[in-house]
Write a structure and sequence with these properties.
CATH architecture of the largest domain: Orthogonal Bundle
Radius of gyration: 23 Å
Order of helices and strands: HHHHHHHHHHHHHEEH
CATH class of the largest domain: Mainly Alpha
Structural class: mainly alpha
Number of helices: 14
Number of domains: 2
Largest sheet: 2 strands, antiparallel
Bound molecules: iron/sulfur cluster
Number of strands: 2
CATH topology of the largest domain: Fumarate Reductase Iron-sulfur Protein, Chain B, domain 2
Length: about 230
């Protein structure tokens, strides 16, 4: 499918959109029934866009390429095609246009219809296959294992605290060893969140000091539990 010509045709003739764009809508049978996308968002959210185009001028990728398929409206349209099964998750054009989205959600704040663009994008991206073998392994390790097992998360947290609080991190950064290893490890390491608490006992501080000083004090969830 040529997205650019297809999406342009649809938007130049909006009345053809629902009848011609989405198989089944004219029969009263939802074309999205059974789509895994509906495990994350509702069908109503999927159909909120009224194709007005008011978001277009806020989208940096549309401004850069001038392609309807790289606009919020065009992406919402592609997400609906994905949900209806008219596009397959491994479609190269679909992957290109959805992956080019910055996820900045400038379109969401500009949209008068309240299209939950961020939620739509996340739901759609969850269906796309990994870009490469490295991402495939990473997805399995994190989404498929780490986040599913609390003990594994605790072990990972302990590893993070040992790494950051024992001085090992400073040593690694000083040696620049990550720069010579493959996979952009230095950049990834720099994105690690700061571990809270001590090495053995993690946790939030009991009291988070107010800012400014005369503001009401906020108490962490940890201290409330005690
Ligand atoms: S996403 Fe919102 S602003 Fe953009 S075309 Fe759809 S309804 Fe209009
Ligand atoms: S999230 Fe940003 S880049 Fe993506 S469609 Fe919306 S405005 Fe464009």
């Amino acid at each position: 499918m040529n997205f650019e010509s297809h999406t342009r045709t649809i938007y130049e003739n909006p009345t053809a959109h629902d009848a011609g764009g989405f198989t089944g809508e004219e029969t009263g049978v939802s074309p999205y029934a059974g789509s895994p996308i509906l495990n994350i968002i509702t069908e109503k959210q999927l159909k909120t866009c009224v194709h007005c185009g008011l978001c277009l001028s806020y989208c940096p990728t549309y401004k850069a390429t001038g392609l309807e398929a790289d606009s919020p409206r065009g992406r919402v349209f592609q997400i609906r095609l994905l949900a209806s099964g008219e596009l397959q998750p491994d479609d190269p054009d679909l992957n290109k246009h959805l992956n080019l989205c910055l996820g900045c959600r400038a379109c969401e704040t500009a949209c008068p219809s309240g299209v939950p663009y961020g939620a739509l994008l996340e739901a759609a991206r969850a269906q796309l296959p990994p870009h490469n073998e490295q991402e495939k392994i990473l997805r399995k390790a994190t989404l498929g294992f780490l986040f599913m097992h609390p003990n594994a998360m605790r072990a990972a947290g302990l590893g993070l605290r040992v790494y950051q609080k024992s001085g090992l991190r400073k040593l690694v950064q000083f040696s620049h060893i990550l720069n010579i290893l493959p996979g952009g490890l230095a950049a990834k390491e720099a994105m690690l969140p700061d571990a809270q608490g001590g090495i053995v006992k993690p946790g939030l501080p009991k009291v988070t000091p107010p800012k400014p000083a005369n503001a009401r004090r906020s108490v962490s969830a940890n201290s409330q539990e005690k």
